[in-house]
Amino acid sequence: EHTFVLNTLKLIWHPTCYFNCMMEVLLIS
Hints:
Elements: H1 2-28
């Protein structure tokens, strides 16, 4: 169950981080 929670958080976190990073790159350029 603990692993399931971690995997779920990763699925939610990584797309958000990726999106934020892309937005920062676009704003900087």
